[in-house]
Structures are given as C-alpha cells and as structure tokens.
Amino acid sequence: MKHAGPAAVDRLEPLLVQIRPLPGLVEKRRGVFYRKGKAFLHFHEDPAGLFADVRFEGTEFTRVRVETVDEQAALFAHLASFATRS
Fold it and tell me: Residue 72 CA to chain centroid, in angstroms?
C-alpha cells in the first residue's frame, strides 16, 4: 500500500480542513500530521480505497478506511475525541 499521492490527498481535503485546527497536531506535509514531535496521522491509497494510519496509543499505527464520507466522519470524530483528552 503506497502513501497517498497528491490526487488522493485532494480527495481528502474536506477531511483535512477539519483536522488542521485540532489542538496538538502539526501538519508537516500536506496530509501528514505529527503530534508531540512524532508521526501521528498519514494516508495511504490502494485499489481497495483510501486509508489513514493513526497512532492513537503506544507506538503502533492503526489503519482506518477513509474512502467514504461516513468513514471520514468517523475518523474525525475519533480524532476530535482523542485531541480533547490528550
């Protein structure tokens, strides 16, 4: 699964607009977010769709599908919840 290219990130722009204001996140490159100096969120694309890798707890990334608007909304809700308690 390759990292999301510019066209894939373009498709995620409405989600990125929501994520950018969340406290504690720094967008180092478009669609690549860091938290406390460590990689926290980035995106991948493959024939099955778009996916986010998120490091919510510990050192491992969790892969989350973000192909649909509903999937993107679910990820954002989780990110927003995580940001407010961290």
Answer: 9
